[in-house]
Amino acid sequence: AVFTLKEWKHLLVLVTAFTIGHSVTLALSSLNILTINQQLVETLIPVTILITSIYNVTQKHSSQKAVQFNYFLALGFGLIHGMGFSNFFRAMMMGISDGSVAFPLFAFNVGIEIGQLLIVAVFMAFLYGFTRLFAMSHKSWNLYISGAGGGVAATMIIQNLL
Fold first, then answer.
1. Half-sphere exposure (CA, 13 Å, Cβ side) for 50?
2. What gap in Å lies between CA 137 and CA 66, rounded to an integer?
3. Which of 4, 6, 15, 142 yields a CA-CA distance of 20 to 30 A from 129?
4. DSSP SS3 for 99
5. Is the separation of the CB atoms in 33 and 25 below 8 Å?
6. Closest Cα to residue 105, out of 27, 32, 35?
7. Residue 106 has pLDDT above 90, yes or no
8. pLDDT tens, 76-88?
9. How many angstroms separate the CA atoms of 6 and 12, rounded?
């Protein structure tokens, strides 16, 4: 939500950083090299969304340092989300006895990446519609989208803790 249409390249780098993070932990978790309490992961995922929402709303300007910090956050948050994806991947792999997970893991990761890029494309189309066609300020767009995401994330955190 914090990026403008002109900053689409920064957004693609951000998505790539997130992908690198989730690919690493998805592979490590799926191969049982890394194991973390799933309840903790399911709570941390909305925490990352809430932190991102708060950061988007409170960020004053997008200096080069702030943009680099966004990439670092995306990479770190991707690590957490990858652990969540690993449960779904392991469930899909149940019953496969040959032990070859390399190709299914690669295909699953590619599918997640395609899904993310489709979501970004739809999101950018909405951004274009609201800021260009309906003349909504980008600041209002960011506040609305980040606020909505933060609200949903806060609700999920509370549900996971109860």
1. 13
2. 21
3. 15
4. coil
5. no
6. 27
7. no
8. 999 998 888 887 7
9. 12
Structure tokens at 46: 């909305």
Report yes or no on whether pTM surpasses 0.90.
no
AA identity, residue 60? K
Q: Which two tokens stand for residue 25?
A: 């932990």
pLDDT at 96: 65
Residue 36 is classified by DSSP as: -
Give the DSSP H or E segment for 11.
helix 8-30
What is the number of alpha carbons within 13 Å of residue 148 lying toward its C-beta?
6
Find, among 140, 135, 114, the residue nearest to 1 by Cα.
Answer: 140
CA of 43: how far to CAs of 12, 112, 127, 139, in Å? 26, 20, 29, 29
The amino acid at 25: T
One-letter amino acid at 108 equals F
- Tell me the HSE value of 65 on the side-chain side, using a 13 A CA sphere: 3
Contacts of 49 (CB under 8 A, 6+ apart): 149, 150, 152, 153, 156
Instruction: State how far the Cα of 140 lies from the Cα of 102, in Å rounded to an integer.
Output: 44
